[in-house]
Structures are given as C-alpha cells and as structure tokens.
Specification:
- The chain has helices at residues 4-18, 20-31, 33-62.
- The protein has 68 residues and is an all-alpha fold.
- The chain has a domain at 23-60.
Length: 68
C-alpha cells in the first residue's frame, strides 16, 4: 500500500523532472539581461507595428488628429 508521503514524493519527483528544461532556460536568461532586453524590445516593436493601423483607424473615427 502506498501512503500519502510516498504519493507526495512521487508527485514531486514527476513535477520536478518536468521542470528541468524550463529551469535551465530560465537560468540562461537570467545570466544574460541584454538578451531579455532585446527580446522585450522585439515584442514591443511587433506590438506597435500591429497596433498602429488599428489605433489610427480609431483616432480617425473619433476625430482625434495629431498635429505634426
């Protein structure tokens, strides 16, 4: 018969093994802050590029124009 402690240990071992690779990836990212900044900048640029036409359409609909 398997007790609660044994089940908890088995569950921990299983979950711990599932997080081995993500933990390595996290450790590598933490060691290189410039990589994190670069990836965040790429994401911001992509979001800005995708949102700009939509926001322009909304501003036009609302009658909000930039003075430039």
């Amino acid at each position: 018969m398997v007790g609660c402690r044994d089940l908890k240990n088995q569950l921990f071992e299983h979950l711990n093994s599932q997080f081995t690779e993500p933990r390595k990836q996290y450790d590598n990212l933490v060691k290189d802050p410039k990589l994190i900044d670069s990836e965040l900048q790429k994401g911001a640029d992509k979001a800005r590029d995708e949102a700009a036409p939509f926001l322009a359409k909304i501003k036009k609909s609302l009658g909000i124009y930039a003075f430039s």
